[in-house]
Amino acid sequence: MDDAERNKPLTGMADELDRREALRQLAAAVRGDGIDIDTESTPARFSVAVEHPVVVPGTDRRVKLRFRVAVGVLPDVEADIWGAITSPDGFSRAQARALGKRVKAACLGSPAIAKARDRVDGWLSSMAGRAGSFGDSWRPKAFADELVRAAAFGGRIPRLQTLLDALEEAFSTAAARAGLKVRRERLETASGLGVYLDGFASARAMVRKLRLFVGPTNSGKTHAAMDRLAEADSGCYLAPLRLLALEGQEALETRGRPCSLVTGEERDVRPGAAHVSSTIEMVNTNRVWGACVIDEIQMIGDADRGWAWTQAVAGVAAPEIIMTGSADAIPYVKRLVEATGEDLEIVEFTRKSPLRVQEEKVPLSEVRRGDAVVAFSRKDVMALRRELLGRDHTVSVIYGALSPEVRRAEARRFREGTADVLVATDAIGMGLNLPIARVVLSTTRKFDGREERELTASEIRQIGGRAGRYGMHEDGRVAVLDGESINPVRRALTSPPVPPEDPRPWISPNLTHVEAIAQELDTDSLVRVLRTAGQELLRAHQTFRMTDLEGRIQAATAVDRAKLPLSVRDLLARCPIDVRDQNQLRLLGGWALNQGRGIPNAAPVGAERFRHHVGTDVELEAAERAVKELTAYAWLAYRFPEAYPEMDLCQERRATLNAFIERTLAERSLARACPVCGTRLKANHRFRVCDSCYASRVEQRVRRPGESAGEERPHHRRVHHPLPGGRGRSRAGR
């Protein structure tokens, strides 16, 4: 028996390999007709290459589009193949040619081809309609060239959907380029951001006088502004911080004007009060006031919060608006006032006591009573505190993670002399009047949340200006710690402000803008609305520019899954949480989900762990985070009392935590603890974690994947090799 007879299938016997071989022969017979067979599928699936000439809308350019149309399964052909391979003669080339004619007729006559051509024509018609909305910005001839390139596919014939995807991508790219200006203008017009000033009807309807009181710290400009505010029958004082708002309330009441306090987390409404002191984000632009004072106006140039100052200057309805701050604000305010068409009077104030640069660097051993040592992170503040306590100083500290109540208590300790040295971040630059004789910068660089950079001249002037309180010190001095350069300080304090490259004030979309953008985009996604606003709007606007919305977008991502109206989610996304802390983002997201389900949210319970007298450094940091969570809960409880019903309990726990933090910070030394397990560490312990946690971490690193913790590992033991000089393991290892 020869090989051909041996390999010939038995009558009625065949397998999948025989079937695939027959399909390959059939595919070879029809390949010249553009027909392709998927031999790997069961049953086999057929497709045919189609050439469809079209005319690019708006031009006389003809383009031949080539694509592959799926015909699907041909049951009769499948049956004939199976019958042939199980026959005594098997599947021959003659049968392949004969069957190929049937396949060609079936494929070329398939109704799927007409449907595919209709899909192409429909896409071209849709494209023409969408392109028409771009008006003169659309260039159809240029797009025809891009369409030809997109349809080429390097000589290959793509499937119809692949071709349509490529054409749509080419159109999207061309449309984005040609219609971006049109889209931006449409969105800006629809949202109202393009005509931002028109959104403040009360302010636009009245004649306002704008006054800008500029001068360095300790020049009396805010005092003069508060005198004028107290003369008005009604008015509002707008501050960047709750501490300043509280000082504003006290300043007005000492001038005989009852004044209410309104911040994001609290309301202190005084009966019969016609004056209100509030944080600037809480400004009421619908009420008509007798006068308004907007403090720290130089913040209008801040990319994160500057929008609130723009909103206040543009929107407060009062015949007299007084802005107080440094001269850095002048270019921004001028650009804004030019847009409103109002009058601006600039009044310059001079410092009451001189501010001098101390050329000699200050060793830490020469820090003296009345000094404020400034760092730019909590970690550095606590390290300086520890060093100064070791040099027999009493120290109060102020940094951003502390609540306003604790900051004020720490400021009081320094003001009353209980603490002879202050260690602080640039949080002392606003809202605290302190008897500082000398400001000592520990560094002239800071991490601003995005990058580490040099301090700006404005920041150095703002911080350094806290030295030399009038009536307490003849002059103020600004110095740097040993090892730092005094040059940036000298330049900042002896040179006039440098105009900004872009003096356009910042603005941020409010709820009206958000809802209008959502309607224009036909979306309910807050994230998409904010991303569109941040990436597309106000790029070429002559007066305004869009604020940095990334933090708000991250918060929106946390709340967007909740079944809540867009307006509610937008308000939740403004909640004062640290978006860099994933735990706080998860907490906000969980609150939003509960609110959407109608489940009341309980106040955070972290305060129960801090009822002892004082804590360790680890407990202090945990207590600060717990205060932030309670502050966020209080902020939401004022706006959604039914969803966050435990306001009283929240404030009670917040007060407990603040008292614990105050007691801990007032201690002569701060006990150390392991951040992993909380075990107390000796003051001279060389490493951040305890020995037990470090050993567990090493054990986990050397353990094999899948090996249990109690499993013995033969032929291996860990050996500690001291480094030269007897220092043991490096600090970096722990």
UniProtKB/TrEMBL annotation:
Q: Where does the record place the region Disordered? A: 701-734
Which parts of the chain span the membrane according to its record?
none
Keyword Transmembrane helix listed? The answer is: no
Q: Where is the composition biased (Basic and acidic residues)?
A: 701-714
Q: Which residue ranges does the record assign to the Helicase C-terminal domain?
A: 332-538
- What start-end ranges are recorded for coiled-coil regions in this protein? none
For the keyword Hydrolase, the answer is yes
Q: Name one GO molecular function term.
A: helicase activity
The record's listing under PROSITE patterns reads: HELICASE_CTER
* Keyword vocabulary terms for this entry: ATP-binding, Helicase, Hydrolase, Nucleotide-binding
Put simply, this protein is called: Helicase
Species name for this entry? Answer: Azospirillum oleiclasticum
